[in-house]
Write a structure and sequence with these properties.
Largest sheet: none
Shape: extended
Number of domains: 2
Distance between the termini: 86 Å
Number of strands: 0
Low-confidence stretches: none
């Protein structure tokens, strides 16, 4: 009789243990869903608000302003994300160049170069990189 009690306890505990293991695995996979690329910053709220704007012209204008504010605060991740999300290629290039210059003014030349590389127009990109290189 004693052997059957041990078996029934094991049968009762096995689903509980499996459920707990499943919960730990699911929490690990989905509970902390913040990716490494997702910026954590006071400006993230402004970026999120700008990304929710449906009108492309208004959205790009808001993203431009967020990118400039982020560059002024040396928040490269927010600046880059704001620039990448812009739709108008000319405004996007203008935003990247302006943000790169703001970073270079703060002697953040590597970061300024990263941002300048987001410029699509090769002539504008080269001119921006040259200005960063010359100081």
């Amino acid at each position: 009789m004693r052997g059957s009690t041990a078996i029934s306890r094991r049968c009762l505990l096995q689903p509980l243990v499996l459920s707990a293991l499943l919960a730990v695995l699911l929490f690990g996979a989905f509970g902390c869903n913040k990716s490494a690329d997702e910026p954590a910053s006071p400006l993230k709220g402004k970026l999120d608000a700008a990304l929710e704007i449906r009108d492309p012209l208004v959205r790009d204008d808001a993203l431009f302003k967020v990118a400039q504010e982020a560059a002024a605060a040396a928040d490269v991740a927010i600046a880059k994300k704001a620039i990448r999300e812009m739709g108008d290629p000319i405004k996007k290039d203008d935003a990247a160049a302006a943000a790169a210059f703001k970073l270079a003014e703060k002697s953040l030349n590597s970061e300024a170069t990263e941002v300048a590389k987001l410029i699509g127009d090769p002539i504008k990109r080269d001119a921006t990189l040259a200005k960063i290189a010359k100081g």
